[in-house]
């Protein structure tokens, strides 16, 4: 979580539009040490620095490692091992000693910012489930007592199969055995202490363990792909990580209500670069997917996505997210033999050679399109700053022809409307990149299409009631049979009401028209259709425009596997 928004206000009007990256998430790595051939911590610390890696997680509070990371500026997440959990939960003084010895003793030289209390407790030590939140509470109280509670956040890594019914995402919920007893108080604790939910989400394992044919490799890797639709929300997913994250957000909402949401980090994720499935996993569809090429694709997609600021999901487009790749090294003590995929998650070989190319310092563009969003001007900054934003946008590539006198979007002729038009055009032209909708505070991003932004090209296709029900029905049948999306006008769906022939025909005609990119002649329907240039009102049903609806496959029902 990286709140870094305030800087630009200080610069004020003199240097108004230095574009800066405010929303980008942060990327880290997991420094696992289940191996007998790894370099010493000092060499590892240098390796992290050389590669511009700014966050690292370790699986204990090892003094040698913490000393080696001193004065590097690297943020460090330490962990209370599961073995200590029961004592830490039972006795606040044990928690205090742990925090003194493994955290306070190294601050501020070593920038410890997170304490994980236990590791995947529901998986590895379910006998400790009920001790988890008391242990977290005791660790937090120890931090308060030592004056460190602002600098250091307390969380606990949760394996993804705590979430069940995760496909489609909107059905996601926490498992019954932990939902009310552990997850609810834990989420409340995380909210209260300004911390975050730490999920270990591995699209690799969900792909590996899938029901054959339900998950494509590109979807799992985060490569460009045609997407899958959650039929109950109509949201389209282009990445399995997004689907798993949203299942987690929906699960949270079922416990906390839809407004409270705990920031969520993917604290362990990665893709195996080689080896074979162990006996435990043998025969699964995805066993062949462990390869250097796939690991490189997955991890680079993740790095580019997070560092370019594309941290939201279809359901929570404005969510922030950090992620930690598992793992820094191939670890020869993991799994059940030299060939086990579990030994091949490293970004580096133990000799510190990269397994494949990746770059934390110069991320490329996000491979998955960011959620649809718009940039609107902020009336509160006053006319002068709106004018400055307008001038800057029009001078730097925004298409401002539509707001010239006489053009379609000249009215309403207000500075606010023109500024919104211009900053949004600039933002869309910049590919909605992080930091391109700030304008020194004169604009902000929204995720619902704003009515106030005029689209000079917008048009819709609606049905003419005058042609009579028979001709409307014939045209409606034709449109639905020729590529219009008629799902939303089925009984129970979002545009079934108003249940009239003219309303249903308008929906279908417009869908056909938009899907054909509003080409001339695609709103005729033998005289039953008409193009209109103002958004039509049909009850509560909104006729889609601008975005062409994508052809996608529905998500299957079930749960994504986590290991
Ligand atoms: C490091 O180890 C890998 C894997 O064993 C090997 O392919 C590579 O050549 C080694 N690099 C160096 C510089 O020794
Ligand atoms: C409107 O259409 C023209 C011509 O197709 C295109 O160049 C322009 O980018 C469009 N403007 C917007 C805001 O979509
Ligand atoms: C998924 O579950 C929903 C709700 O239970 C059901 O209506 C739908 O038919 C199921 N879809 C599949 C592909 O099984």
TrEMBL record:
GO terms for cellular component: plasma membrane; plasmodesma; side of membrane. This is X8 domain-containing protein. It is found in: Cell membrane. One of its GO terms (molecular function) is glucan endo-1,3-beta-D-glucosidase activity. It holds the Pfam family X8. The keyword Ion transport does not apply. Residues 373-456, 459-543 form the X8 domain. The lineage of its organism: Eukaryota, Viridiplantae, Streptophyta, Embryophyta, Tracheophyta. The keyword Cytoplasm does not apply.
